[in-house]
Amino acid sequence: MSHVSTPQHSDSDTPSRRGGGRGRKRGRTGKRRTGRWILLSLAVLVLAGAGTAYWLYSGIDGNIKGVDIDKAIGDDRPEKLPTSGQNILILGSDSRAGANAKLNTGNVSGARSDTALVMHIPEGRKKAVAISIPRDTLVTRPECTKSNGSSVASAKRVMFNSIYSQVGPACVVKTVEQMSGIRMDHYVEVDFAGFKDLVDAIGGVTVTVDQDIHDTSSGLDLKAGTHKLNGTQSLEFVRTRHGIGDGSDLGRIGLQQKFMLALLTEIQKQDLLGSPVKAYKIADQLTAALTTDSELASLTKLAEFGRSLNGVNPSTMETIMLPVAYDKVDPNRVIAAEPQATTLWKALRTDSTIPESAKKSPATGGTSS
């Protein structure tokens, strides 16, 4: 694993070589298993919770795109339990369409859910838990309906991050619900171009790396030391994997969080909530790249939800990677490790403490939190 004191994360999207045998060397431990979008999404909600004055509302409310998850999935969903708290599926989309096509982010066509995690907010909303799902995880995709109304049959051994491009976001939600038994209350998606613009809007993010990074795939070229990264450099940084460590996707998951901590630190340092002009600029850039479920698809609704999260402190958030093991047929893929995964999802469903045994990931050789 690379020694990076602030994040790194990669993403040239060569779908075959993700978890791979190379990842077996990692043996990572510590609370480093999450995706970059969790803190970004929290920042969205915090900014929305700052207020919805008309001048702000009228300028950015129309930016937010909505997906009617309930209509797309129908009744084939887990029951919402009274003790299950709030559960949000957060996706980082790496579509190469539109503005994203101009970014140096690899040579994969189409769109994929680059990062996926389930954020669980227990009853009382004091402490959140984030479960990241490795994108190379082989899953059973349930029968789904596309946005055009056509049906897609269920399929086994489908790579998780391909579902978004093949069937759409509602099917990703349904897949996560089927594998976890947890009903997702909300869906939030942020795309690459929005991530880039967010970093540029706050004037860059400062990171420190302990070794040189040279990744011809992402375009990142950094010497060891401290650097102020702009939006394009930040994208290269959070997606890099070939220029650091052994290049596995599992290690990359942990590196992503480091960058988001640096981003959140920068946002807090600038006191954006105390500056309406800065808050507007950030919110405008962020909502333009935001897609949510239809229940959150307005600034007013986001603000209401954001205010309800006032008691959640990101610094106390527990971050856990879904325990996985290398697939015996294809060592470049992983599968959910049992019984750890079942125990983990059950703890979230019942708002219970997650046992340490449920955090053990055979693919990393240690705890996945």
Could you please describe the fold and organization of this structure?
- By secondary structure, the chain is of the alpha+beta class.
- It has a single domain, classed as Aminopeptidase.
- The protein is built from 11 helices and 19 strands.
- Helix 1 packs parallel to helix 8 (249-269), helix 1 crosses helix 10 (299-308) and helix 6 runs antiparallel to helix 9 (276-288).
- The radius of gyration is 19 Å and the shape is globular.
Descriptive terms for the model:
single chain; 369 residues; alpha+beta; Aminopeptidase; seven-stranded mixed beta sheet; two-stranded antiparallel sheet; 11 helices; 21% strand; globular
Q: Name the poorly predicted regions.
A: 1-39, 48-55, 105-110
What's the number of extended β-strand segments? Answer: 19
User: What proportion of the residues is helical, as a percent range?
Assistant: 25-40%
Q: Beta fraction of the residues?
A: 15-25%
Main structural class:
alpha+beta
Brief sketch in words of this structure:
The chain is an alpha+beta fold. The chain is 31% helix and 21% strand. It has helices at 37-49, 54-60, 69-73, 163-166, 169-180, 192-201, 231-239, 249-269, 276-288, 299-308, 340-349; strands at 65-67, 86-93, 113-121, 129-132, 138-141, 144-145, 151-152, 155-159, 186-191, 205-209, 213-215, 220-222, 225-229, 290-293, 318-321, 324-326, 334-336, 360-361, 366-367.
